[in-house]
Design brief:
Length: 397
Amino acid sequence: MPTYQYLIIGGGMTADAAIQGIRAIDPRGSIGLIGTEPHPPYKRPPLSKGLWQGKPLEKIWYATEERDVTLHLGTTVQTLDLAAKHVVDDQGTTHQFDKLLLATGGSPVRLPFGSADIIYFRNLDDYLKLRALTEEKQRFAVIGGGFIGSEIAAALALHDKEVTMLFPEEGIGARLFPHDLNQFLNEYYHLKGVELWSGQVITGLTRQGDRLNLTACSAQGSSERTLEVDAVIAGIGIRPITHLAEQAGLSVDNGIIVDELLRAGHPDVFAAGDVANFYNPHLDTRLRVEHEDNALTMGMHAGRNMAGEETPYHHLPYFYSDLFELGYEAVGWTDARLETVEDWIEPFKKGVVYYLEGKRVRGVLLWNVWDRVEDARTLIAEPGPFKPGDLKGRITD
């Protein structure tokens, strides 16, 4: 029976960051990692960004195996017994632990059809499969107009592929960007050669030989259309993988509930990354964040606390994206349903969007404005009240 002082369930960026955090405090304690993927931990953002722009594949790897860690890859944990402090994997092996980190991430939301013919873009194997298809195929459909969908559509278009984006919202990133900005993005992508089917709900997928027929109708449920393509990629969100926590009786509500030390309702069990639901004092609300900054910062924090530190996690994460020549960083609660104040240096090319609730800034979108994330965090921490005029030039100056 393998026995570890620290056992990590999950093999992603959060897991590697947690191992770094443990090693910063405890250089010698035994660490085991159980990951479902056959690969050791790697950087996930390049899969939809840098690798399509010429970054070499070998640059994505972390050096996890160099930190005196036992890796159990291609392995899935089936049961968690808190009383016995062990887990059992799909090979029937029991792994004992003193401290446990649940960094299980999330699984893609899937459509109720076409499972064998849709690439739900999430991991390295998905990237490798899609990249191989681009060597021989030309026409691609991308389902979803959010974070992953917009990046993959841009990546394929940059490789001279015929790309059609399909999504139910009115514009690209409509849940994040205010109306005029998402409509600008619609036109921007069109000029880049991407065909847009906005306001469309996917209703079916069938195969005819090497071709796929994707059917969609308007969000109002009429006017069905058919699109013939070579391949279909979907990025329509993820669901946190919480079944181990639920089975063990830990609190789950849109992720695994953790306290400010990232403990998951048990003094020796922690959770971090995409799967963790944590309280953020800057926004005075609970969050579950699915982006790199949170994965790395929270993972490091969890590892250090597992190894004996007791430091609250009060970090306000940010995320970023590249869309052809445009790019942005976003901090806090950036929800297009909030009141927004736009402060453009050059309309839709460079500027800042502020998101307000109750006369307080809840989120900041830095659109082609760089190195101002800390300024955005400082502003979000301020109690206000703010009027729209108070924000003009606040970060752009």
